[in-house]
Request: fold
Amino acid sequence: MIPAPFNYHKASTIEEAIALSQELGEEAKYMSGGQSLLPMMKLRFASPQDIIDISKLQGLSYIKEDGDVLKIGGLTTQTELEHNDLLKSKYPIFGDAVWLTADPSVRNCGTIGGNIAHGDAANDQPALMLALRATFIAHGPDGEKSIPVDEFFHGFYMTALEPGDILTEIQIPKAKPNSGGAYHKVERKVGDYATAGVAVHIELDDNGVCTEVGIGLTNLSPMPMRLERGEEVLRGNKITDELIEEVGKIASEDCEPDSDLRGSEAYKRSIVNTITKRMLNKALERARK
Reply:
């Protein structure tokens, strides 16, 4: 389908983008890569009268460690995440996710900030952000704000971003020794949204005890979901096969899937059990290395 008519505006600075948003009203939408917004517009699920293109804002595409934090600019594309040497060597969970995200043409345009700000539980990056304990930096009419990931997703396509806010940076605790992460999703075909997906990040001490863990679920509830009960089972313990089995069972019990064209509720509960166990083992293997 063809989107409904809209007015196109292009901003060259953050300040200009925010000012345009204020002038045009709450119904105006920012667009970076457009890979989340445009499909919704084509299906008439969204019909904004004004689009503010922020794809060319300077200084918002980067991947770097700064002190104890990994910083990723909001306009960093999925392709940049895929090929970045720092992420490949120390944060391989990003490579797991990007390789399963859509196709190269989409990854060349789609940005990490847009993927997260869209607030779609079916997108891949939100689960990673939950697992990695991310913090989001946003700029808006009221200045800069910092939003922890656990306070960011509010519901179906709903986030803590206020009208006019732009997600400018993602901050993630720097990778520690004896830590590792992994992500996988089951999909109907290559590049599809997840039927179910799981992101895991684990940190171990020198004795192999789990000191910190994050588990995020993709497309298994109305909003990106943290598996809190599963995390509590692992934190403070040595991770055994028995604990991994228990967490897989918890994932199947605590998720909130709906039956749809991608599978029945029972099927989704079954596969999230399996994926959770596999990702825990993969993250654990990486942490031990």
Remarks:
- The first strand starts at residue 7 and ends at 10.
- The chain has three domains: 7-52, 63-173, 179-288.
